[in-house]
Design brief:
33% of the residues lie in helices and 29% in strands. By secondary structure, the protein is α+β, with helices and mostly antiparallel strands. Helix 9 (232-246) crosses helix 10 (259-268).
């Protein structure tokens, strides 16, 4: 209660979601809404009472106007059911934050760019794969195998690959994967899969994120240079999708921003849902 009052003073009418507003908040974001997969995923994994993933709402005339998810204090996501949300109130909230990255529906977060002059906006396509989508069977080339990453030694190999991929370094130069962070995410239900070659080296990877009872994000899809054009990522993402659906997921989601990735995901069965964006 005291915490909420403090937030009211700092952020005006923007405050932590309270226990009494939990059902209203869940109804607002919708557990099967791809735009709010991070909101519901973090709520599902951390609940309302946590410093790691904090959920904020603002109300107008007694109804939720918009919501913010603040993850690890600097990674922020935004969502509103309406395009006519109180933009000034939302922008004032962001001014008070140490924003490393802001993400959300492109049309909604684009206005925030003017208040973050040292940041740039990257446009992404949000694509989804429903449970009822028939998946084709892809076979790995001889000499390769898919394995779920579970032990520390394999996590070290995965970290080396992810931190070496140029595309990931360009997305966030200050963000580096660590063994401890991956192991922590694995305990939360995140799945890490990799393709190993005959030398037991990891040459391709795909992981899940924001895992919950109805959905998950597919992230960290990459293949080491020299091993591309072998269908490794296609096989891996298809295998991961099958694994997630066996766990009861209703749909999977992912982001992409280049034609090559689009070709792979569309071949598997993902369909474009809308334009997402990240300001970082």
């Amino acid at each position: 209660m005291i915490e909420n009052l403090v937030c009211d003073i700092i952020y005006g009418m923007i405050y932590h979601v309270s226990k009494k507003e939990e059902k209203e908040f869940l109804s607002y974001i919708g557990k099967d809404n791809p735009w709010t997969i991070f909101f519901y995923g973090d709520y599902f994994n951390y609940g309302l009472e946590t410093k790691k993933a904090r959920l904020f709402i603002s109300k107008e005339q007694g109804k939720i106007d918009f919501t913010f998810l603040v993850y690890r204090n600097t990674l922020i996501s935004f969502y509103s059911q309406s395009s006519n949300y109180d933009k000034k109130a939302a922008q004032d909230f962001l001014v008070e934050q140490k924003v490393s990255a802001l993400s959300g529906k492109e049309s909604q977060i684009k206005p925030f760019l003017a208040n973050l002059p040292d940041k740039k906006l990257d446009s992404l396509t949000l694509a989804i794969l429903p449970r009822n989508q028939e998946l084709k069977k892809y076979v790995l080339p001889e000499g390769y195998r898919i394995k779920k990453i579970q032990d520390e030694n394999d996590f070290k190999k995965l970290v080396d690959l992810l931190n070496f991929i140029d595309e990931f370094k360009k997305e966030d130069p200050n963000s580096k994967k660590t063994v401890s962070s991956l192991e922590e995410n694995a305990k939360k239900g995140m799945t890490f899969l990799a393709v190993f070659n005959s030398k037991n080296e990891i040459v391709s990877s795909a992981s899940s994120s924001a895992d919950n009872d109805v959905s998950a994000m597919i992230v960290s899809v990459c293949t080491k240079i020299g091993y591309r054009d072998k269908n490794l990522a296609t096989c891996l993402v298809t295998y991961l999708a099958q694994d997630e659906f066996q766990k009861g997921k209703e749909y999977l989601a992912l982001f992409f921003d280049n034609p090559l990735a689009a070709k792979i995901y569309h071949k598997i069965g993902f369909t474009d849902f809308g334009k997402y964006a990240m300001i970082h």
